[in-house]
Amino acid sequence: MMTRRLTAVGLPAALFVVLALVPLYAGVFDDRFVLLFATRILIFAIVAVSLDFILGYGEMVSFGHAAYIGLGAYAVGILAEHDVWAAWISFPLAMAVCALFALVTGAISLRTRGVYFIMITLAFGQMAYYTTTSLSAYGGDDGLTMWGRSELFGTGLFNGDTSFYYIVFGVLLASYLILKVMTRSRFGRVLEGAKQNEARMEAIGIDPYRYRLTAFVLAGTIAGLAGALMANQAEFVSPAYMSWHRSGELIVMVILGGMGHLHGAILGAIAYMVLEETLSGYTEHWRLIFGPLLILIVLYGKGGLLGAIRGR
Fold this sequence. Notes:
Blueprint: H1 2-20, H2 22-28, H3 32-55, H4 66-81, H5 87-109, H6 114-133, E1 144-145, H7 161-184, H8 186-196, H9 198-203, H10 208-234, E2 236-237, H11 244-257, H12 262-280, H13 287-301, H14 304-310
Antiparallel strand pairs: 1-2
Helix pairs in contact: 2-3, 3-7, 3-10, 3-11, 3-12, 4-5, 4-6, 4-10, 5-6, 5-10, 7-8, 7-10, 11-12, 13-14
């Protein structure tokens, strides 16, 4: 028991320390690719953590979670197209758009359970996807190019690779800590209780629907913030950000790392992105190799990579 507690505290701390040292490594070895690739990993880690919050703790299998990445990215991209570069305007707007979308879609989707919930979230995600492909004024299928990055109170922090990395790192750390506190609070216990026995929660006078909807909106808002960061990192916005394939990849990241543990989602995002980059360098059919690897990890890891590390 003591070993598990130390692992639960020490592993996340070690993980964040290693991530914080990536720019140092990139600077010593003059490897800009590593820094840019690590930045992209952190952005996906933010989305994976938000998905794990509703999937691992609330048992809400959202197959449209990637829609928030696209909505957040398009909010920044469209404002930039109209010469609005201030991050203090575009980022809150991106989060507000995603929160509203999550509120509306969640209010409907959470009336269902199981495969019906999966299909409805998939349908809403595809609606967002096809809506962006029809925006011919903003690139349509071809996407939207941003001729620069957002400005933070007149500074160029977003323009430097290292400074932007630490901005993304700070967002990931803040998202992790906020969601971690929530999972350990009464809010998190209600989500866990509803996952185990919803009828019993209702019998003691607690309505799980409101808690689930709040968690759903929060997860969508955080994912939207990640989308805003992705638009700046790539300086490009595409409908592909919100395709159902991307949502599937996010679920794989959560399962691969260890569902129900926020730092497991970060670990899963790192492992998925590194495996994708490595295997795709050998063959374009890298998923044929990755698929069996994922099955072996899930079957024998008993809790993904995190379960394998813990020796369970």
